[in-house]
Specification:
The complex is a heterodimer of chains A (about 375) and B (about 260). Chain A is mainly alpha-helical and about 375 residues long. In chain A, about 65% of the residues lie in helices and about 5% in strands. Chain A is globular. With about 260 residues, chain B is of the alpha/beta class. Chain B contains 10 helices and 10 strands. Chain B has helices at about 50-55, 80-85, 105-110, 120-125, 125-145, 160-175, 190-205, 220-225, 245-250, 250-255, and strands at about 10-20, 25-35, 40-45, 65-70, 75, 90, 180-185, 210-215, 230-235, 235-240. In chain B, the strands form 2 sheets. Chain B has a 6-stranded mixed beta sheet with strand order 6-7-8-3-9-10, sandwiched between helices. In chain B, strands 2-1-4-5 form a 4-stranded antiparallel beta sheet, with helices on one face. Chain B is globular, with a radius of gyration of 19 Å. The mean pLDDT of chain B is about 90. Classes of the chains: A mainly alpha (about 375), B alpha/beta (about 260).
């Protein structure tokens, strides 16, 4: 097996550790909070990169899957079942040890499902919905697929915005931490900052390794192939509709897991996470990263989300991502993170001038 | 006149096949059988329904009526990948490759139906998938050698000249270990030398025991390599049989040379 494809993973691990050490040395560990959040958004984005970049199926509904994961876990770990504690189902759950009894800030007792169960439930529900949406929608191609997934994203947004159980415009708050393993807790507490930074990045690294393996396998080859020619892929024995559905569900799982973890980290989730502009943002990041380029996408995802979370783009946050999408499509449709990109951008600029392209001499 | 191949078993049987596009009857009640181990050519002027027939056999189009059976099994209306799994593989007149992928990747996709690593096993990179992948690569490199593509293994397909791309398509089809190979105008776009080479390649494929059904415009190639010929015009069978017999058929001469 070719081990070269894992070199970037090693580099990534080293960079992650280096950043943590540097932030501690300089006493600026508060940056780790945004880097943790960026990591979760990156997890979603590399999943989308697999779907969009490699398999060539666009989705403008990834924020919807993120929200389905986040809202499911938020709801299940905050809804108080104490009044129904004697119901037979809940007694059964209690004896299985999958219920949690805790006290809120005011000393009220809250009984709810354990985050692990909520997490599993969130993933199962995501798979179910992704199948349900994917089967009809993936028959469409290009713009039509983009519109249909956009429609799905809008539905999720309106549902979470309009449902009382999901807190309407306020979203769900006071989501408890997620005890991953004894002593390892996903939460935004100050004391857990460094630990959470590593939890997030371990998750991203695992997610990236799985995708690298997939891309370089028989299944990944079939995915890349149907991007090139669905007809050729199918006549060589690739079950095109099943492969498209599988990769759609896979990217939805990545989005959903990211949603679950970030919701526990942020202790809450609001409807803005489900908004269409979030989905557009993810598509813009994959495009800027170079489409079929996992590492380019990851670099872009961390950088742009970090800047956005630090408030660098101010009130123009969404506008900036829309502009990025337009600019990339115009000047560097093959993305920014790759060789020879500078000369290509220069060429595109010259092309814009009237008659410019005729004067251009290509240096070789 | 009785050549020995006639006695080989029937591999493919097409019976009363019909296909219309709007008012155009592209395939009109066509029937034929194909014995295993031979080369059969389907010829006819443009619009005779040859490619439509191919598209139906390979599952890309669904017939309006009629039946296609392969080794006695009814395969009418199956999806293309199901037909490929049964051992029928095709090439395309206007080459269909993944231009953004390497030559090796394009040949390796040919082994898709002969291998089995799925999403889970592949993502976890289970040891057997690594072995399977290495074996696939080995087989494909051997096939590529036959088409002198070894040096181009890592070249992006879109950078190759047309003739080489056609070779990649052939290599991809052979990688699938087909029992029946459908060649859709393999000589189109090739020059006279490349066509001669092609005839040799097709003979070699036949000698491997692979049955070939061929749609072709190049008459000299067809007469050279075919064991049997089926002539179509406006979706209908005009003549069929041995090349020397078909060649003399007045109706065929009429179609090709016009009425005298």
């Amino acid at each position: 097996m070719d081990l070269k494809r894992y070199y970037p993973v090693v580099v990534l691990i080293l960079v992650v550790i280096l950043i943590q050490i540097l932030t501690s040395l300089f006493g600026i560990t508060f940056y780790l909070t945004q880097l943790t959040m960026s990591a979760y958004y990156s997890l979603l984005t590399i999943g989308l990169c697999m779907l969009m970049g490699y398999a060539g199926q666009i989705s403008l509904g990834q924020a919807g899957f993120f929200a389905i994961g986040g809202y499911t876990t938020a709801f299940l770990t905050t809804v108080n079942l104490i009044d129904k504690a004697e119901a037979p189902v809940l007694s059964l759950f209690k004896s299985l040890g999958i219920m949690v009894l805790r006290e809120d800030l005011y000393g009220n007792k809250i009984l709810h499902l354990s985050p692990w169960v909520a997490f599993l439930f969130a993933v199962i529900i995501t798979i179910f919905i992704a199948f349900l949406i994917g089967v009809p929608v993936l028959k469409l191609k290009g713009h039509y697929l983009a519109m249909a997934t956009l429609g799905f994203g809008i539905i999720v947004y309106r549902v979470v915005l309009g449902t009382r159980a999901f807190g309407e415009a306020d979203g769900i708050t006071r989501v408890p931490g997620f005890n991953l393993l004894p002593g390892i807790r996903v939460s935004g507490d100050f004391a857990n900052r460094v630990e959470n930074y590593y939890i997030a990045w371990v998750l991203v690294i695992i997610g990236a390794i799985l995708l690298i393996n997939l891309v370089n396998s028989r299944a990944g080859r079939a995915l890349r192939y149907l991007h090139g020619s669905e007809e050729a892929a199918s006549t060589m024995g690739v079950n095109v509709s099943r492969y498209k559905l599988n990769v759609f569900v896979l990217s939805a799982i990545y989005a959903s897991v990211a949603g679950v973890f970030l919701t526990h980290f942020n202790a809450g989730i609001g409807p803005s996470e489900a908004s269409v502009m979030k989905s557009v943002r993810y598509v813009a990041i994959v495009a800027a990263g170079g489409m079929a380029n996992l590492w380019g996408t990851l670099i872009m995802a961390v950088t742009l989300n970090f800047l956005s979370l630090r408030g660098v783009f101010g009130t123009y946050d969404d506008a900036v991502f829309a502009v990025i999408l337009i600019v990339i499509m115009l000047f560097a449709p093959r993305g920014l993170i790759r060789k020879g990109v500078i000369s290509e951008i220069e060429f595109a600029f010259k092309k814009l001038k009237p008659g410019g392209i005729i004067k251009v001499k290509r240096e070789s | 006149m009785n050549r020995p191949y006639i006695r080989t078993p029937v591999l493919l049987e097409v019976k009363n096949l019909n296909k219309s596009f709007g008012g155009v009857h592209a395939v009109n009640n066509v029937s034929f059988t194909l014995n295993s181990g031979i080369i059969k050519a389907i010829i006819g002027p443009n619009g005779a329904g040859k490619t439509t027939l191919f598209n139906i056999i390979s599952g890309i189009l669904k017939a309006n009526s009629g039946r296609v059976s392969f080794k006695g099994e009814d395969i009418t209306g199956l999806n293309p990948h199901e037909i490929a799994e049964r051992g029928i593989v095709r090439t395309f007149q206007n080459i269909k490759l993944a231009g953004h992928m390497s030559v090796l990747d394009n040949v390796m996709i040919g082994r898709h139906s002969k291998t089995r690593a799925g999403f889970f096993a592949a993502a976890l990179s289970l040891p057997w998938t690594i072995k399977e992948e290495a074996r696939t690569k080995e087989v494909c490199m051997e096939i590529m050698e036959m088409f002198s593509l070894t040096d181009l293994a890592n070249e992006e397909v879109s950078n190759l000249p047309f003739g080489k791309q056609r070779a990649v398509e052939f290599a991809r089809a052979l990688a699938a270990d087909p029992e029946l190979l459908l060649l859709d105008e393999p000589a189109s776009g090739l020059n006279i030398y490349e066509t001669e080479e092609l005839a040799e390649v097709i003979e070699r494929i036949k000698n491997k025991g692979i049955t070939i059904l061929l749609v072709e415009h190049d008459m000299s190639l067809v007469m050279d390599i075919s064991d049997e010929i089926l002539v179509l015009n406006f979706g209908k069978e005009v003549a069929s049989g041995l090349p020397e017999k078909v060649q003399k058929n007045p109706e065929v001469i009429n179609i090709y040379l016009g009425e005298g």
